[in-house]
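Researcher: Sequence recovery benchmark, item below. Answer with residues only.
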């Protein structure tokens, strides 16, 4: 448990604000920016903070990266393909920069925080001007000031990630749905996962800071917040006398914010207290993302997940008994080292037994320096592909089953915008986090309205607005 304050000091935050102001008067400085974001919600939210700082520095968004004076790539490294995509796009900009040499290129986020990556960027990507990790995003004003001022490359990656950064300006993407981080980092060290190495140990924000942020959002008319953390169920475990996660949820709902979601729950830490809160607290959305990763006990043990297939199913049963209207979603990895046909069949059986609303499915991707990287029994890529295809086909059936059960029901839908297909069609999210399309006028955008579900397609529901 931590003892001393780990917050970045107010003096340091003030120094960064001064760099932001000085940047505004730097001759020939970049005027416009474009951020390309990869990966999870945590990264999407970091990009909102990066944009907040860039605007404080007097920059405005450019519609495309080709037109921007500063292009920042906020990267992800969870799987090999995420990393390759980011590096490919950075390389592609090299050509644009040939025609516009004054353009500045930045790379930040999880990939940069990997051991050895900053050196690799310096060596292999000489056209990158600024690189920094997830642990020092608050330093963007200083780093970009130095890069623009000296036209020299600036790289800054903290070795340790042990700080809490409060008070950054945030440029939020949506006026009615907002992310609120409640904790940073992860202590779990699932054997396949690189996150604990690039995001550091768990650090919980204080409940007071979180509540202040939510109260301000509620006053601005935000309808839905998503509380973010790699493992929200262990919120507060690193702070003496902190409130528990279910207690935090209760206090957040007392602000009057209409809807609350949270991501991600680790099954091993999902407490009876949280299930009780899900059953009783009407502001909590009827959705729980509960990554199972595998349905096989030997694979779960090798993954260091610290629960069994049986204890996972038991928790699902408890949730369903307490709150039957909650939709469950999950993450699953196939072809983990040593996964046998029997292990994979166990995963399929679990998927059938639970009946998830939807699942994110992945083929295991080796991450250097993680424990699974050393494990024997690498799976033939052809077998991995066949397994993921079978899994997706089964999950598609389950999704169809779950979606068709909703036909005829009335759902509360937060209207998020016009549908991509037609102007008269609106789209939104029901409490279970499923997209619902229906006809209606644009003045409903940003409101929560009742919609009767009339049909289900593969990935969305169709409905009729009752207002
Ligand atoms: N290979 C494949 N999938 C992974 N995930 C995390 N690490 C890996 C990896 N090395 C998946 C897990 C996690 C989700 C965010 O990404 O399913 O829950
Ligand atoms: Fe990675 Fe496991 Fe932490 Fe999730 S809980 S971020 S999968 S180590």
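Model:
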């Amino acid at each position: 448990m931590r003892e001393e304050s780990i917050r970045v000091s107010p003096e340091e935050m003030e120094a960064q604000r001064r760099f932001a102001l000085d940047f505004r008067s730097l001759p020939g400085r970049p005027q416009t920016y474009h951020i390309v974001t990869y990966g999870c919600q945590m990264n999407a939210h970091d990009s909102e903070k990066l944009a907040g700082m860039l605007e404080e520095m007097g920059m405005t968004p450019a519609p495309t990266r080709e037109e921007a004076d500063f292009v920042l790539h906020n990267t992800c490294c969870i799987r090999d393909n995420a990393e390759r995509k980011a590096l490919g796009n950075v390389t592609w900009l090299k050509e644009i920069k040939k025609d516009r040499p004054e353009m500045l290129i930045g790379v930040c986020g999880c990939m940069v925080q990997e051991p050895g990556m900053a050196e690799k960027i310096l060596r292999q990507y000489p056209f990158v001007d600024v690189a920094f990790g997830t642990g020092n995003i608050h330093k963007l004003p200083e780093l970009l000031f130095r890069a623009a001022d000296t036209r020299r490359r600036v790289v800054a990656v903290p070795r340790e990630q042990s700080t809490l950064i409060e008070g950054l300006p945030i440029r939020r993407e949506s006026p009615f749905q907002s992310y609120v981080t409640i904790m940073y980092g992860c202590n779990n060290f699932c054997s396949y996962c690189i996150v604990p190495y690039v995001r550091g140990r768990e650090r919980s924000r204080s409940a007071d800071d979180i509540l202040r942020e939510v109260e301000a959002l509620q006053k601005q008319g935000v309808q839905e917040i998503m509380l973010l953390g790699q493992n929200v169920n262990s919120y507060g475990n690193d702070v003496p006398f902190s409130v528990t996660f279910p207690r935090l949820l209760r206090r957040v709902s007392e602000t009057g914010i209409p809807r609350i979601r949270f991501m991600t729950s680790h099954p091993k830490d999902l407490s009876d207290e949280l299930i009780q809160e899900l059953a009783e607290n009407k502001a909590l959305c009827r959705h729980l993302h509960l990554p199972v990763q595998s349905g096989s006990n030997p694979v779960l043990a090798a993954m260091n997940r610290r629960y069994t297939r049986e204890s996972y199913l038991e928790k699902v049963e408890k949730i369903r008994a307490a709150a039957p209207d909650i939709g469950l979603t999950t993450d699953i990895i196939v072809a983990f080292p040593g996964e046998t046909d029997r292990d994979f069949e166990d995963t399929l059986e679990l998927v059938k037994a639970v009946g998830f609303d939807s699942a994110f499915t992945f083929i295991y991707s080796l991450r250097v320096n993680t424990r699974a990287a050393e494990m024997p029994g690498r799976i033939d890529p052809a077998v991995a592909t066949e397994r993921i295809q079978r899994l997706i086909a089964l999950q598609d059936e389950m999704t169809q089953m779950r979606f068709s059960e909703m036909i005829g029901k009335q759902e509360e839908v937060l209207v998020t915008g016009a549908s991509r297909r037609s102007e008269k069609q609106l789209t939104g999210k029901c409490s279970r986090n499923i997209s619902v399309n229906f006809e209606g006028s644009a003045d409903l955008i940003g409101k929560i309205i009742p919609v009767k579900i009339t049909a289900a397609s593969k990935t969305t529901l169709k409905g009729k607005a009752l207002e």
